[in-house]
Amino acid sequence: MADQKNRSSAANLLSGTEGVKEVTHGIHILPGQGNCLSVDVGDGIVLVDSGPGGPVTRSMIDALRELSDKPVEAICYSHGHAGYNAGISKWVAHNEERGDPRPRLIAHQNLEARYARYRATNGLQQKLNQMQFPMFPVPIDPVLPDPTESFSESMTIKGSERIVELLWAPSETDDTLALWVPDAKVLYGSAAVPGTSIPNIGTPLRTQRLTLRWAETLERLASLGAEYMVQEFGPVVEPKAAIETQLTTMAEALRWLHGEVLPRMNAGLGDTEIVHDVEPPERLFGHSYMRPIYGAVEYIIRDIFREENGWWADRNPTSLHPLLPADAAAAIADAIVDKPAVLEKAKKLAEQGKTQAALHVVDLLAMAPGEGALITEARNLKASLCRTRAAEIAPYVSKALFESSARRYESGKVLLSETHEPAATS
Fold this sequence. Notes:
Layout: H1 2-14, E1 21-24, E2 27-32, E3 34-40, E4 45-48, H2 54-67, E5 72-76, H3 88-98, E6 104-108, H4 111-120, H5 122-132, E7 149-151, E8 154-158, E9 163-168, E10 177-181, E11 186-190, H6 211-222, E12 228-231, H7 240-266, H8 271-277, H9 282-285, H10 297-308, H11 325-335, H12 339-351, H13 355-366, H14 373-392, H15 396-410
Parallel strand pairs: 4-5, 5-6, 6-7, 11-12
Antiparallel strand pairs: 1-2, 2-3, 3-4, 8-9, 9-10, 10-11
């Protein structure tokens, strides 16, 4: 029952929140992986994203055909994360069945390099997805259909009655595009404007997202003067004043964090010290679109720190040239004379509601190799603490990582490399 609830929660998190919805004449949201978009340009349809494939993409096709019989001229990739355009083949087949020309597949020029990186690191991507989305029983198999066209700064698609402009909007990825419909004053914010969460900069398993660059993108989008804004997941935003306020507030919040982190780095503080020292103001972070649903202030602080620092974030000389994790954990466990006392202390801290402190203490035994009774008990206690910690925090990604870690410890595994065979290479 819990796994079913978690899977449903994850599906809701990644789905469009608006359903099929008319934004304004000729422009509709189609629910896919996030809010996908359909724009009638006169002689055809321009889509943003094809959906994740399967029944979701099929329902998108059916929904479009309830609205229009015009051919799909182009499918634009909102960004290069796997899943958003895994359904391309269904749309291509749909055009073929209707006798329509094959749709143009358009993406920012950086997407090709991203797809190449994902293919080269497929084994890693599978492990990361298994950790971040533990509620899906089948590993996510990324489908990466290549685009047929690309652009650098912008591209204009001219229909018989309307033009749409594709704008480079680096944010969550360096290949994100936003779509602007000038005559209707409609902005599709794409991954630059998540809608239901603070920008997911610095999520634990992902590469850097560059905070100030994201802020600059938001400011450029605010300058367009949109009267309707379609967010990646949240509801349509209107009128013009509300759109401008949201985009500029998001940008100001990101710049505020950057301005708070830099002087603390200059003073010699490490990333964890900075996380515990910064207090975000409610005026910037108290809005519905800045909630820690997927991203979090702590993640952003750590990402800003990484932009200016190397990997030695804790400044502890012990971590400069460490032993293998198993060897270090074995040495620590061997040095503890009264191992049951460690477990009792961790349990006591947990009873007092000090879950994070209990995790630090139980690690003295839980990370050690071997299958002894005390080590197994420590791992099971850590799994329980992980689930408790998941309930205490807000960001989905942290919740998911605590859950996937709990499962790993319950299975007797400590390291992620112990859980799956290495991916085959060709």
